[in-house]
Each structure stands twice: as C-alpha cells, then as structure tokens.
Amino acid sequence: GGRPLTGRLALYLLALRAACQPPDLGAKSPPLARLKYALEEDWTGSQQHGHPLTNYYQYSLGVLALCVHRRHVREELIRRLLAAERHDRFGHGDGHAVDTEAVAGLAFACLHQARLAHGVLASELHEAVRSVARKLLQAQGPDDLIGNVFSTPLALQFFIATNSCESEPEYSRARDALLQSLDNFTNPMAISQLLPALYGRSYLDIASMNCQGERGTLQPISPVTQPTELGNIIVGLVVECPKRLCHHHVLYNQSVTVPAGSSLLDVLEVASKQGHHAFTFKTQDSLYGPFLTTVMKVEAKWQERRSWHLLSAPNTSLQMGIADYKPHDGETLILRLSKW
Ligand code: B12
Ligand SMILES: *[C@@H]1O[C@H](CO)[C@@H](O)[C@H](O)[C@H]1NC(C)=O
Ligand SMILES: *[C@@H]1O[C@H](CO)[C@@H](O)[C@H](O)[C@H]1NC(C)=O
Ligand SMILES: *[C@@H]1O[C@H](CO)[C@@H](O)[C@H](O)[C@H]1NC(C)=O
C-alpha cells in the first residue's frame, strides 16, 4: 500500500472550514472519518518504525485539523507527538525541523486552548507549547529569519496563535525580515502558509471564523509577467550516488546550455535531450510542484527514507524545488541521493 493521505486530508479539511463549508457535504466517505483513519495508520506506523508513515509535519497537520473541527483526538496519538517533540525527532535534513516544530506547536496550542485535553495531558501540552517557543527562538539566525525564509511564516503563525507576539521582540524582527523577503514567495503552497501570518492570523483562527457574508471575497488577479532575459547561460550538472547503492559514485557530470532565466527543471529537460551521455529523470506531482523522484534510473524510495537532495556546488542546499529554482551562469548543481 501507499502512504496515508494525512497531510492532504488535513489541508482539505482546514480549507473547507476556512471557506465556511460543512466538512461532510454529500461525501460517500466523509473526509473527517478518512483523516481519523489516516492518522491512526500513521500512528500504527510510528509504533512499528519509530516515525509516522508520512512524516511528523503531516501527522501534526492531522491533529491540528481534527482540533480545529473540534473532534476528539485519542490520547495515545497526542502522546506520540509530545514524545517526538520532547526528543527532537522532527528533523530531516536541513531547515525542515522548524516547519514541523511550528505546526506541531500549533496543534499543541489548539488542543490546549480548546480544552480538548484534561489533567496531566493538559499540563504536558502547556509545557510542550513553551518548549516549541524556546526551540523556534533558538532557530532564529543572524538574518532574523526563523529557520529559513519558508519556515518563518509557520513560526510566526505559532507566535500569533499563542499570543506571544508583543512579548517577544524576536517576533517583530522575524516579521520585518520576512517583509523584506516577499520576493521569494512565488510558489502557491509557500504563499498559502505566508498569507495568514501577514494578516496576523494563524490556522487556529479558522475554528472561530464568522461564516456570515463570506461570499465573493475571492478576486482573481492577473499574473505579473517576468521580463524575458536575453542570451544563454552554462550550468554544470552533477549526479552523485553513495558507493554502497550505485556502481559509480558520479553518475553524470556535464555542462548544459540553457536560455537565461531557465529553471532547474528546464536544465534537466535540456540535459535529457543532449549528447550521447543521456540524462534521465522522473518527477512526481506534489502541492509544491514537481518533486524529483528518479535520476539516471535510480529511484529514491520513500520507504527507505531516501530522496534526491538538490545542492549548489560545493555544498549549499537549495531552498526551492526544481521548477522554482533558477540557476545562474557558471553555477554547478548537484543532485545527490541522500537519507533524511
Ligand atoms: C517533509 C518534507 C520533506 C521530505 C519529504 C519526504 C517525506 N515523505 O516526508 C524531504 C526531506 C525528502 C524533503 C525534500 C525536499 N524539500 Co522539503 N519539506 C518537507 C516539509 C517539512 C513537509 C512536506 C509535507 O509533508 N507537506 C504536506 C503534504 C500534504 O503536501 P504534499 O505536497 O502532498 O507533500 C509532499 C511534497 O511536499 C514533497 N516535498 C517535500 N518537500 C518538497 C519540496 C519541493 C520543492 C517539492 C516540489 C516537493 C516537496 O514531499 C511531501 C511528502 O511526499 C515541508 C515544510 C513546509 N513548510 O511545507 C518542506 C519544504 C516543502 N521542503 C522544501 C525544500 C526546499 C525541499 C528540497 C528542494 C530540499 C533540497 N535542497 O533538496 C527537497 C526536494 C528535492 C526533490 N527531490 O525534488 C521547502 C520548499 C520551499 C519552496 N518555496 O519551494 C520547504 C517549505 C521547507 C523549507 N522551509 O525550506 N522535504
Ligand atoms: C530571497 O530573497 C532575497 C532578497 O530578495 C535574495 O537575496 C535571496 O537569494 C532569496 N532566497 C531564495 C531562496 O530565493
Ligand atoms: C566534473 O568534470 C569536471 C571536468 O570535466 C571536473 O573538473 C570535475 O571535478 C568533475 N566533477 C565531479 C564531481 O566529478
Ligand atoms: C560543506 O563542506 C565543507 C567542507 O567540505 C564543510 O566544512 C561544511 O560544513 C559543509 N557545509 C554543509 C552545509 O554541508
């Protein structure tokens, strides 16, 4: 079987509530019931493998969505998330721990504020909220961002939800840094995490939304067309695979000529059509756009927790995916099969 759809169902349910739609509208299998089931599957997986079948980000989103809909969440499911937070299990690769820390914090804050937990559990949730706040503040860098530019909106949502914005000067510094970096937000999924924070709101506010007069607030906007850049650029493309898994460590190493302003995806496409050293790749659609799954016929299996990691030489991890990242002239990009 595939992975449970915990994250997608959670986002769908949050969106329904935010759009003032009842959650079970004429559905044959109601999304709330499906989310509960997906979360149970993730929980069972975490018992067996030490981590959810999806990831703790989606597990947290699932708990949060049930809480926003004021549905009961089993104590054991909450305890698993509390334990993961306490033992710093949210990290996978660079920068990603902050996103998960923030969403787990939103889930803890929701459960605590909605009084969906009592006794010892309630005080553990309270302690967890404080622990998340501490870790997020520790993750603030010299650029004032919390984690990176794309995790900062979720971190701000957490501080908004817990009413700690005024008391934390770090919050305004992070918000100001974010306001200086709005150009980075071109990906619709990233924008969807940013917008609530810019309006001083968090996913928790969805629960108490006033659903009167919510018609016709969505206005289409015409997209801004980027000026076309002139000329060509040359970028290096290197594919690396650990010796244990592949015959050769370097599976591909060529330069590729593309029009200026091309994305990394464009580079991969041109490489796949050029010369006799044929480059091959496959992607899978995700809410963030195309996710690189297979390179030179080597598939990164999620069951083995492997992925194709994108880097700029010598070893700077990219903060965007293949469709959004635009390489510059002379840059070398590395696709490296890694564990997370
Ligand atoms: C977990 C996670 C991962 C895991 C995903 C595997 C897994 N099964 O869990 C791993 C570690 C493999 C990963 C990889 C990458 N990630 Co990531 N990831 C996340 C995280 C924390 C949660 C994603 C999720 O589950 N979403 C919820 C579900 C419902 O959405 P979904 O679309 O169905 O989920 C899938 C995709 O999101 C996909 N995915 C994960 N990351 C990325 C990044 C991109 C660009 C794409 C297209 C897809 C993708 O994996 C999810 C699970 O299958 C987010 C945090 C966030 N704020 O969103 C960052 C995040 C989305 N990742 C990010 C980045 C940059 C990457 C990488 C490009 C890093 C790199 N230098 O290689 C790579 C992707 C490279 C590739 N092969 O195409 C950025 C994207 C920023 C942006 N504006 O584009 C985020 C926001 C983190 C951050 N703050 O920087 N990621
Ligand atoms: C974000 O924006 C800043 C300033 O506009 C820029 O210098 C930086 O490279 C951008 N970061 C990413 C990941 O695109
Ligand atoms: C790729 O090839 C260039 C020369 O063609 C070489 O200088 C470079 O070291 C190679 N990179 C790797 C990772 O093998
Ligand atoms: C990049 O490589 C250098 C030297 O090999 C190392 O010191 C540094 O920690 C690496 N950085 C990252 C982000 O891996």
UniProtKB/TrEMBL annotation:
Keywords: Cobalt, Cobalt transport, Disulfide bond, Ion transport, Metal-binding, Secreted, Signal, Transport
Function: Primary vitamin B12-binding and transport protein. Delivers cobalamin to cells.
Chain positions recorded as cyanocob(III)alamin binding sites: 54-58, 99, 148, 193, 308-310, 318, 340
Organism ancestry: Eukaryota, Metazoa, Chordata, Craniata, Vertebrata
Pfam families: Cobalamin_bind
One of the GO biological process terms: cobalt ion transport
Disulfide bonding pattern of the chain: 67-110
Any GO CC annotation of this UniProt entry: extracellular space
Organism per entry: Casuarius casuarius
Subcellular location: Secreted
Keyword Translocase belongs to the record: no
Matching InterPro entries: Cbl-bd_prot, Cobalamin_Transport
Protein name (Swiss-Prot/TrEMBL): Transcobalamin-2
Family, per entry: Belongs to the eukaryotic cobalamin transport proteins family.
Segment forming the signal sequence: 1-20
Gene: Tcn2
